[in-house]
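Sequence in, structure out.
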Amino acid sequence: MHGPTRNELWFRLGFSLFGLAMLAVTVAVRGVSNAAALIEVVGIAGTFFGGTAVWTALKLWRSRE
């Protein structure tokens, strides 16, 4: 098999979900002061962690078959 193992995929999924949760907590507690910060913090970090979570979940789903 080429690519990451199932254990590594589970780790990536957990790390991505943890990152999304920390992003949500940070925005909820600290807020976003301006639009540029919203794009930078939520847009870039959210896209990174969200994209990684979706990609990893799809890989795990496909590897079940």
